[in-house]
Each structure stands twice: as structure tokens, then as C-alpha cells.
């Protein structure tokens, strides 16, 4: 249970870390890209304004000056009467962008043009045009150079910003994933430290159960001996009823103590008793044990064995027999009409024991809890204490097996015990059990 709790807490903490880091990364990525875009646009506006100021003060177009803007990823087109006079052709998309983002296509261009000619005002317009899924920054200015009016059209190579976004997104993704993995690993080992007191508390609880159960056996044996000594023919019917009730309750407490001792013993046991066993032997012995009980309740106990012998499986035979016996005992207790069936088979190199009954079945609400300790809604509280299925689950965990329950058709329940034929090597340490 501690290991399961550790994994769940690690998954939870890792999920929280993932959400926090992902959110922080997205916000930081957006801030970095936005800052880069804003600073780039400010630089573009500054360079463009300097260019327009220079051209306003000169009488000739110096191509060498214009070519210097190529290093700034800025394309410059000199237009006159809707015709291109000069172009720096700074990047390959500039020609296509000029066609789709021509200043002559802008709604305010002709107002600016006639205002410049008639009043001598200088107009500079900045606008954005989308081309091939990228927003390109554009600007134009109408300038008198040597007595001739030219339209200066500039385009910034915004594809560089798109490439920067892609590069930064990959970088942020890699850094975030690495950070999440590292923090998840740290969380796993951190949880191990955190759960040390919880693990110690569970160990003390198991020790208390084992010690208390052993200590209770002696006074119970004495009480039962005294009750046997008081029985006789001289007792009245009322006295006999009292003694019978006391003796029955002593037997119930004895059964519960034996179950607690079994539960504690399984938790601290290892795999030193694992041996190669014929899987069918478990079913046969279980059938011999419960056939009289089934006949007494007028139930059919059906056994299904494979036609060919199954391969030997490494297991603790006594524990597996105990596990299947618990499942059969529960099935018989809960079934009043019909049958209880036992079977063993192999499915995808996995050994599978099944115990099916035609009882009332188990509700979906109870299914997640039936393997919990002292959970006994399915059975009569007078004869069952909610330890049987918990013990069966502990035996399954000891074998690294999976114990599940499902609905039987048309009614009833099916319990399945499934595990791989190949078990991990015995390390001498008992596994962590719920």
C-alpha cells in the first residue's frame, strides 16, 4: 500500500508540476516572443524613419545607402507612377509582397500623394499585410527627390520572427519536458522520504495485530475450556442457550483472530516457499474441500480443466490454495440457487484462475471496495468479518498477480486471479502489500 500511495502521490505531484511549468513556460514564451516582436518593430520603425529623413534631404538616390538596409532584413522599393524604379530585393518574398501590399492599394495613399504634391507635406504610413500565413510590416512615404515625386515602399522580413517563434517554442518545450522529468524523479524519491513515518506506522500496526492476536488466543482458549466444563445435563434450557451463545461467539472471535494472524503472516512472508506447481492441482484440491459444503446448500460445484496439462508455475501452493478457497467460500456463501464454477486456463502466457457464481452479484458501488480490510457488505456480518477478500488480495500481491471482479451473465460475479508464468527472482524481502 505504501508503494501504491507513493506512486499515486508522485503522479499527482508530477501532474501539478507539469501544469505549473507548462503554464509558466507558455506565459514566459509569450512574453519573450512579444518582447522580441515589439523590439524588432521599434527597430524597423526607427530604421524606416531614418531612411525617409535621409531621402527627404538628398537630391539623388544612393543605391549603396539603400543596400546597407539589406543587413537589417529590410526590403526597399522605389516606385514612380506605379512602376518600380529600384529595389534592394532583400529577401525572396519581397517581389510577391510588393504585388499584394503595394502602397497604391492602400485606401489613404492618394490623399497622401496629392497632399504631398499640393502642400509639400510628408506622409509616412505603416501597415501590415498578410502573405503566406505571415504578417509583414509595410510602410510607404511620398518623397520629392530632385524635383520628381517617388514612393518609397519598405517591407520587413517577418519570416525571421516566425522562425524565431518556432525556435523558441522548441527550446521552451525541450527545457520544460526536461524540467518535468527531473522534478518527477526528484518527487519520486522525495515521496519516499516523506512516507517513511507512514511506512513505520503501518509496520507498527501489523506488529500490533500479530502480537494482539497471539495474546488473545490464550484467554479465548481458557474461556472455551471453562464453557466446556460448565456444560452438562444438570443445566436448565436457558443456561444451555447462554452457554451455546457464548461458545458460538468464542468460535467467531477465534476465527477472526486466525484471519488476523493469517493476514499479518502474509504481509511479512516472502517467496521462499515458492515451488513449481501443477496449476490444476489447486482446482482439484479446492473441489475436494468444498464439494460437501456445496452439496449441503444444494449447489452444483462445477470444475473446468484444460484438455492438455498446463505448464508448471512457480507459486506458493498453500497460499494460492488459500486464496482460491476464500473465493469459493465467498461464492458458496452468497449463492442460494444455481452453481459455483472453478476453472484454470492460460491466456496470452498468463495463468488465470476463475471462480464464478450465480448469486446476487456485486454492485458497481461496492466493486472498488470489496478487497479492502473489514469491508463485508457482500456477506453476512455474523459469519464474515471482511478479511477474506483482503487476505486473497494480499496473496495475489505476494505473487505479483492481479485479482479482479466482474459481472457474471445472466447474474452473479466472476473473480479472476491472473499472473505471468515468469515471476521476478526472490530477493529475500517481502513485497509491499496493501
From TrEMBL:
Signal peptide: none annotated. Residues 211-423 form the Histidine kinase domain. This is histidine kinase. InterPro entries: HATPase_C_sf, HATPase_dom, His_kinase_dom, HisK_dim/P_dom, HisK_dim/P_sf, Sensor_HK_Regulatory, Sig_transdc_His_kin-like_C. CDD domains: HATPase, HisKA. GO terms for molecular function: phosphorelay sensor kinase activity. The chain crosses the membrane at residues 12-33, 170-191. The lineage of its organism: Bacteria, Bacillati, Bacillota, Clostridia, Lachnospirales. Pfam families: HATPase_c (PF02518), HisKA (PF00512). Coiled coil: none annotated. It catalyses: ATP + protein L-histidine = ADP + protein N-phospho-L-histidine. PROSITE patterns: HIS_KIN. The keyword Plastid does not apply. Its EC number is 2.7.13.3. Keywords: Kinase, Membrane, Phosphoprotein, Transferase, Transmembrane, Transmembrane helix, Two-component regulatory system. It comes from Coprococcus hominis. It comes from the Bacteria.
